[in-house]
Write a structure and sequence with these properties.
Layout (H helix, E strand, L loop, with lengths): L1 H21 L3 H21 L3 H33 L2
């Protein structure tokens, strides 16, 4: 049973990583990256590393996508202001 959970978690992680690479829009990439961080946190937790899993949840699924979204927003705003 535990092996099946590990396999499912790894497949979800591989799918999310592939989706993150295949997505072209940076805002959507940040959202997919958030899912990837969530799935990686699950993988670490299933593999009995809960401290690493919690760190991954905080950084990989919350902070990094948030910083990317803020950066994309700022770049898009500067692009609109500079085009006038």
């Amino acid at each position: 049973m535990a092996d099946a959970v590990i396999v499912v978690a790894l497949l979800l992680t591989a799918g999310a990583a592939t989706a993150a690479v295949a997505t072209r829009d940076p805002a959507r990439q940040a959202l997919v990256l958030s899912l990837l961080g969530l799935f990686l946190g699950v993988v670490f937790t299933v593999l009995q590393a809960p401290d690493v899993g919690l760190s991954q949840l905080a950084v990989g699924s919350a902070l990094t996508p948030l910083l990317i979204m803020l950066s994309v927003r700022k770049v898009r705003r500067r692009g609109k202001e500079g085009g006038k």
